[in-house]
Amino acid sequence: MSKTHGVEKVKEVEVRELDLASLDSVRGFARAFNKTHRRLDVLICNAGIMAPPERQQTADGMEQQFQVQESQRNVWHKNCVCAVYE
Asked: What is the pTM of this model?
């Protein structure tokens, strides 16, 4: 990143796919991220499920809406964000 008038300009953006309905996917993403990066500057979380017409369960055994919007965040934080700052 370079600074112009005190504001950092991004020179590179990386986009990766992640299935929040799969905790294995979240863990795998975190492992891959940790192998190639030493820090995380910005994380944009743009996912969610709102009021599905019927209850759906993930392969992990959790209600899908709860896992996608809540549980995966804890797994991501533990496996990736904490590791970056250790």
From this structure: 0.67
Q: What is the pLDDT of residue 29?
A: 86
The answer on pLDDT for 37 being more than 70 is: yes
Q: What Cα–Cα distance (Å) separates residue 65 from each residue in 12, 20, 33, 47, 57? A: 32, 10, 25, 10, 9
Of residues 66, 46, 49, the one with CA closest to residue 57: 66
With tokens 């929040």, the residue in question is: 20
Residue 43 region by backbone torsions, left for phi larger than 0, else alpha for psi between -120 and 50, else beta: beta
Task: Give the span between the Cα atoms of 45 and 77, in whole angstroms.
Answer: 12
**Distance, first Cα to last Cα, the chain:** 23
